[in-house]
Design a protein that fits this description.
Blueprint lengths: L2 E2 L1 E2 L7 H14 L4 E14 L7 H12 L3 H13 L19 H6 L8 H9 L32 H17 L4 E12 L11 E11 L12 H9 L11 E2 L10 E5 L11 E2 L6
Length: 278
């Protein structure tokens, strides 16, 4: 497969600017190629979420379920009065030391929606975690499930709210997710000296090495986590060009054949293909 490489000189938005390096490569260097100058492999941790207090719960319902604050709190209070959830009005986002995590998990072990994940945590206690960070405000503990709904008797938005709270609770005591990332630096001869922006391209890929808490959640980004994610976007609101998938096993000194498609709007990006492909 072809792999899109990012040009260090960034995008070109005019046909003329895109055509110039294209002509230099494809008219003077046949076939054009890129040489791998650096390979960096890392593991990155995606931390499990913090336990839910009322504010975080309302944000989660709004962003993930599109349920407004008044309706979300009303559903949570009904679930509390029915024994399904703990008291939903709390400022605490840390489990107290007296909170029995295994016992709370055991209630969810037979639920077909997430029981497989819960049973795995209970069988391998080395993966079972306490809640990350947060603050114990001394009022009520974070919002957690208190009763199983394995028969799925709940319905409508009450079921969706219970589902979100329960998945979030299980996620808070699950291992962090581990991503394996690879960054490749490329030099294209014919566009400039090695190290020059005009001749430098890069590839970035990632694969999920250990899903951890991501295996149980349906909504990965909401509340403070999503807000921090927005701040980490690049200029113009773009996210980093990191392909969600493993890159081929490149090595320093390897050469890759290139093609440079021109888009209809005049932008261009170099596409690198593994040398094993025709």
């Amino acid at each position: 497969r072809g792999i899109r490489a990012k040009w260090r000189a960034q995008r070109s938005w005019t046909p003329e600017a895109a055509r110039e390096p294209y002509d230099r490569l494809f008219q003077n260097y046949r076939p054009p190629a890129a040489r791998v100058t650096n390979v960096l492999r890392q593991e990155k941790t995606q931390p499990r979420p913090v336990p839910l207090n009322t504010v975080a719960f309302l944000k989660a319902c709004s962003k993930a379920l599109k349920i407004g604050p008044h309706a979300a709190l009303s559903h949570a209070e009904r679930l509390y009065l029915s024994g399904y959830l703990s008291y939903p009005r709390t400022e605490s986002s840390a489990y107290p030391s007296s909170f029995d995590v295994p016992a709370a998990l055991q209630q969810q072990a037979s639920d077909p929606r997430w029981g497989y994940h819960v049973r795995a945590l209970l069988q391998d206690r080395t993966r079972l975690q306490r809640g990350r960070g947060g603050t114990d405000a001394g009022d009520h503990p974070p919002i957690t499930p208190c009763r199983a709904d394995a028969d799925q008797l709940l319905s409508g938005d009450m079921r969706r709210v219970y589902d979100l709270v329960t998945r979030h609770f299980i996620a808070t005591v699950s291992p962090d997710a581990i991503w394996r990332t690879t960054s490749i630096a490329l030099h294209v001869e014919g566009l400039g000296e090695e190290g020059a922006d005009a001749a430098a391209f890069s590839l970035a890929g990632k694969e999920l090495a250990d899903p951890g808490w991501l295996a149980v959640v349906l909504h990965q980004k909401y509340g403070p986590e999503a807000e921090r994610g927005e701040e980490q976007k690049g200029e113009g609101g773009e996210e980093e060009d990191e392909e969600e998938g493993a890159l081929p096993p490149f090595s320093v000194g390897e050469t890759l054949p290139l093609r440079m498609p021109l888009s209809e709007r005049g932008g261009s990006r170099m596409a690198a293909s593994p040398s094993t492909e025709a």
